[in-house]
Specification:
With 171 residues, the protein is mainly alpha-helical. It has one domain. It has 5 helices and 3 strands, in the order H-E-E-E-H-H-H-H. The chain has a 3-stranded mixed sheet with strand order 1-3-2. Helix 2 packs across helix 3 (87-111), helix 3 packs across helix 4 (128-149) and helix 3 crosses helix 5.
Length: 171
């Protein structure tokens, strides 16, 4: 009889990230935030919402994409508009989110966690066409990343996630 793996916990994701990156990169993953945020420092801190595995994977994907200069800025120097963005602002959001969400989807797949694109704008519904375009961009990025374009930190983290054996994640 085949036993299914128990779901991965946010604590296991945090432990894996911190084991891989605390020493060489000076970064730690931190659960329990009311809103996700990146704070550069010694160590830099990648905060994710509550204890949600998907939020952790999403924020790690952003950290993996950010270059050295961006990792020196609070929240990587990006703007954030709260819920209720205009169609133009939402289009800008979609343009910068496709690559990190493609990486997040690979992390989710490695852990058998359901992935769905995050539009992060519930008060202003995007058109079906805009959502399809965004989903297509994510798929295009997935194909590029799987074809050898995965950033080094994302590749290391993905390899560790793929070692998940039901008792924890090892790397």
């Amino acid at each position: 009889m085949i036993q299914s793996q128990p779901p991965v916990t946010a604590d296991a994701v945090v432990a894996t990230f911190n084991q891989l990156f605390q020493e060489p990169e000076g970064a730690v993953l931190v659960a329990g935030a009311s809103e996700p945020f990146y704070l550069p420092g010694q160590p830099s801190q990648v905060f994710f919402r509550a204890d949600y595995v998907r939020s952790a994977l999403h924020e790690v994907a952003h950290w993996c994409v950010a270059g050295r200069r961006r990792r020196g800025l609070p929240d990587y120097g990006y703007w954030y508009s709260p819920d209720g963005r205009s169609s133009e602002r939402q289009a800008a959001f979609f343009s910068v989110e496709a690559k990190p969400q493609a990486i997040e989807s690979l992390f989710c797949e490695a852990l058998n966690v359901a992935f769905a694109p995050s539009v992060d704008n519930l008060a202003h519904a995007s058109s079906a066409a805009a959502l399809r375009t965004f989903e297509n961009r994510i798929e295009l990025w997935r194909a590029r990343l799987l074809g050898g374009g995965l950033p080094r930190r994302a590749s290391r983290f993905l390899t560790a996630l793929e070692c998940h054996d039901g008792r924890g994640i090892s790397g």
